[in-house]
Request: fold
Amino acid sequence: MDNVGIVVEDLEVVTAFFVELGMELEGEGRVEGRWVDRVVGLDGVRTDIAMLRTPDGHSRIELMRFRTPTAVATEPKNAPANALGIRRVMFAVDDIDDVVARLRAHGAELVGEVAQYQDSYRLCYVRGPEGVIVGLAEQLN
Reply:
């Protein structure tokens, strides 16, 4: 997998959320032109993007703010975890309690609660800015 794309309204706020999660901002820029129109199947595309990389360098998230055409909502803003489509991206973390506390400073809320799966993991879902859900997984020793 090269990256996961997420369309947002407030690029700066969502970027700050993922940076707090431990991702590194690779770069920002504007994407536009006929080639983009052809790839995404829309006319007159102008987007601002932020590309973020996981600390291990293996995965990326591309955040996109559409200037034109205007982004459209396809589901409720705070859709539940069982809504159709991509619901979340999960990240491995060293200290789930610390990460949840830091993300709360960016407006995040637990979707449910932190729960333990057998003797293997502590897991939770966190809803961040604009309803983005991320999963957190802390492997237990």
User: Anything to note?
Assistant: The chain is about 20% helix and 40% strand. The first helix runs from residue 11 to 20. The mean pLDDT is 93.
